[in-house]
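Suppose a classmate hands you a notebook page containing two proteins, each written out with its sequence and a corresponding row of structure tokens. How would you begin to make sense of it? This section walks through that situation. The first entry is reproduced here exactly as it would appear on such a page.
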Amino acid sequence: MRAPAAPGGRGHSMAKTRYASLEQETRYRELPAAALRAVLREGYSLKDLRADAMAGVIVGVVALPLAMALAIAVGVPPQFGLYTAIVAGALVAALGGSRVQVSGPTAAFVAILAPITAKFGMSGLLVAGVLAGVMLVAMGLFRMGKLIEFIPHPVTTGFTAGIATVIAGLQLKDFFGLRPTRSPDHFFERLSAMWEARATASGWEFLVGAFTLALLVLLPRLVRRVPAPLLALPAAALLVAVLSAAVPGFEVATIASRFHAEVGGRIVRGIPPLPPLPMWPWSAGGVFAGGIDLKVVHALLPSAFAIAMLGAIESLLSAVVADGMARTRHDPDAELLALGVGNVVAPFFGGIPATGAIARTATNIRSGGRSPVAALVHAATVLAAVLVLAPLLGYLPMAALAALLLLVAWNMSEVKHFAHTLRVAPRSDMAVLLTCYGLTVAFDMVIGVTIGMMLAVVLFMRRMAEVTNARFVETHPSLPGPVPPGVVVYDISGPLFFGAAQKAMGALGHIADRARVVLLRMEGVQAMDATGLVALESALDRLKGQRVTALLSGVQPQPLELLERAGVPARPGVAVTKDIRDALAQAEALARSAPAGTPGRGTPRPTANPTSSRP
């Protein structure tokens, strides 16, 4: 019979590895449908179902015009926005980690997706969505949901306001009825093309758009229980119908006049009354007309990464807002995994990229939604509308949808909050915010966020250098007594990170003529990185060369672990002590035992390290 493995032996190590593997597998199994399973465990009653059903219907009605308007803004027919709300909305709700979040096409994506559609066509957009979904699945499996907390607020505020500006600018074309002769990728070039086409502006289109926008702004003040788009858009369609019958030559663009689809060999104007049907994303026309092209897939990767990053940020921010409103807690990793699955599957049914929608989520909560069932009902409501109301949806004016997106962009920009941040924030945060905003508008979100994060990191380094302090002290309230002759106490406080470490260690280079022993007080150093370790090691090497003993007192757990891995406590002329009292006692003994003469010469090696006892 084989003897049992000794603790810490190979058998123990293998058992530990199997346990870790089993634990990781269990964690992965907990991810899918985390919110739905939690709701069912707690008990789901008929009363809850009624509340969710009512909220889901309301959110579905609100999502109808938004999904169509956002698809049109991206550059694809409106039904593909509806398919996104149906497929991705249902999958993310069923598999996600938020109880009340509603997912679908959002305004934040317009600034990223419109250039992809213009350059790669519909098939390129769908394939980019699949690639982004794969990235999001990986982010969820690798538990990256918490990383959203490390994105500085000025970065999110800046790129969100920048995206809102781009969305608003893109709506001017339909709001004024412009007919530009070109459609460039970049924002300012598009504005230039619209300005060149200013002579084609239609007063009727502007009238319909202004009428809709006025209703969208005024109705919430008069009617609180009914969402404003549910009243304003039908009113705009009715206005168009009345003017068409009463005014000769009246004509404005509608969904039915702008879009058409082939169904069963015949042309259907507007939205086809069909559910989302399976399709190959690369067969939708555009760059993949001849089949999958790996070169094009490679060219789509940066766009897919931008979709994945924005989708993750937008969805997790929306989930945080939802938690605050509904007093719930979401699982960010489960939400990312579900969002990835939704974005992988939706393009195979014609769906464009989706993420958590803050406005629809807030509507869901205010309408009484309590669980993911509400978002599932929302998807079913949109599906029912496509099957039953498709001919009526074709009467919606394009100018009215543009007005709806103008209001969405205004709300998204949070102008008051943007201005308030500029007034009260430190100059460094103002620089980050304006940089993110300007680059997002001028180029795209990826460049804006990347440069903004880099600038924020550099400014963080400077702040850490300002926070970290190091100084020689003769007396201090925490010292048990006066500093013995031949001993110097060097007090370090603050993190020893890059940018701050060299400043903290710089003064230790020239003290050989002042002391035989240097006592480094590190109680205030809670964290240290590799740069701080290198700076500390360099200072210790200089002290060793000058025959000065270094005692490190009160080292905190994280820096101590790093020092032990680097072998610092075992170096000649270095000791790590438990606290300042032990350090002063050992320093006094070392100073007395040093030979007479130059203070820094002949310092003996310190006594054995009581070292590795952690404070």
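The notebook's second entry, a different protein, reads as follows.
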Amino acid sequence: MANPPTELGRLRRLCRLYGIQTAYWDVYGEFCESKPESLLSTLQALGAPVNTFEEIPQALRARRQSLWQQLLSPVLVAWDGKLGPTAIRLPQARSGKPFHASIELEDGTVLPGPEKDLAGETPMFFNIEGESYLRQQFEISTPLPFGYHYLNLEVGSAHQRSLIISAPTRAYAPDEDQNHKSWGLFLPLYALWSRYSWGAGNFSDLKKLMNWTRRIGGRFVGTLPLHALFLDQQPFDPSPYSPITRLFWNEFYIDLTKSPELARARAASALVNSDDFRREKAALRADGLIDYRRHMDLRRRVLKELADSFFAKKSARYDDFLQYLEGRPALHDYAAFRATTETRQEPWSKWPEALRNGTVHAGDYSEPLKNYHLYAQWLADEQIRPLGKKSGQGALYLDFPLGVHYEGYDVWRQRDVFALAASGGAPPDDFFTKGQNWGFPPLHPEKLRKRGYQYYIECLRHQLAYASQLRIDHIMGLHRLYWVPHGLEPAEGVYVRYPAAEFYALLSLESHRHQTVIVGENLGKVPDSVQQEMKVHEIYGMNVGQFCARANGESALEPISRLNVASLNTHDSATFVGYWHGRDIEERSSLGLLGARDQLQEQENRARVRESLTSFLHSQGYLSQQTEDPVLVLAAWLSYIANGSAASLLINLEDLWLEEKPQNVPGTWMERPNWRRKASLSLEQFSHMPQILDLLKAIDKIRKARDAT
């Protein structure tokens, strides 16, 4: 950089115009300024026309001009139906031109806007790269119904069409929610198993768990994302937070024994009843870890025979299948993508150019493979739909992952709304001292807005149609997301800002339309501004006991506010007893994340926390004696939360039998069996254990008593 102070200033101004943060405060309270090279790479990932530092002045001029040449913002928010003053930007040459504004409602109705001469308004003038612009406002006072509308604006020969999101300020909450105190159970579906399943959980097991939970007073069951994954091919990735798509289900969870086609498909029935199949199924059931490739091979052989039989001999159900397809036009495209991937046996990034760019023809894939995926999605939908909030089976607490797999369907088909030259991640912190690279391409904020958020809305609707509560992974990502441009280390990443108000409007509108409570994962270092916005829009937060406990006997635990889902842990943290015995500290030490001195300090602090917690719970009347017996402390801690103000209490099922091993150790891949560990007890076992039933009935009694106060 020839003139560092001048060039650096221009670089930072250019970054701000693209929504890039040039500095941030880290978890240690230090002010971190991003390196110029990191900023330049992030600009390139956003599509800025700049390859070298020497091109910054020209790119800065072009960016300023392009922003001022937009008449309107591409997206506007009308909170509670009120659009409010709307700013217009115009070249001075158009000053005084008559303008016409109208609003096209979602149902096609057109509302006329004000017709007037802008010359009557008091403008503000700006000189942008040698050209004069003016900024004025107009207002449409007509209240708008909730929905997605369009503002059409014409000023002389210039015109623009902008999306209006008209949404309630507050997200959906049931009428009873101000006072009702619910509780539910959590377990990853792959970890749930019964005497009838084939060694891993399925939708039938989920239904049984929901029914059992409801019978003992619980209101909902939570699990990890249920989207389709790469489980039987390359690229292989079993993480539920790295889905192929956020638009379709994971066929791994289909209960094939419930398929109506099984009785009619002779080949499938013969396969399921063969000795070899039974031996393989028994081996998979006996294994404490899930070998996804073997599991998928077993399931796929049956699914293939069912699909082949279904399409060869069309039954009375075929009309239902066609009706299902009519309501999901994207499913043919998804099935063709999966079939092409499997036919070519390589990810889309290695396909020929035409295929990479989304042009797929029937000859590019095996038709039976496409039919297989069409049929699999139909079966999955048939089995999960009865579990939705309108079924009477209970309620689902589902999870909306932050990203999708780079080689998956969503990125292939919706490439324009992703930034493919970067990955989402996190800056260095106490646990990940070198930062994190999560591997998925982040959404491109500007391109997503220009396309009216259609992809994001469709992803939300896919789950909101079934969920009574939907957890939004890493809700801070609605405000800003840490990008790691390709070729850089995670510690060299940069924060990119997103239009948070527009995301909150989408969440609020869709939550009301589907009557679903929105829960934001707001754990870790989350700015106060994010927490405040969640309160304004009544997005539930998460309160995790082991993250809040302190070595202070008088206030080891603070009261939990109403707008929270309270729990003792998460899928990414230690189980209760693992935390209680410091197994998570031992884990971090074994991974090289803690030295011997740090490990000792952590264990000493954990001992103080244990002492403070037991003292606090005893003083509050939840422990009859000051003891560190994990069985008694678990019951006391859950009872304390149950008696609090939190709207929902989420109980990890594995805590109830004192499971020590976590489901996921963040930052590991081959080192730990993440996303593979089955529950050590079957559904039939834990659902009849007196100590579990007694504790949950006690929790239910406390929650119901809180309702009455």
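A careful reader of the second entry would note: Residues 81-167 form a domain with the Immunoglobulin-like fold (CATH 2.60.40).
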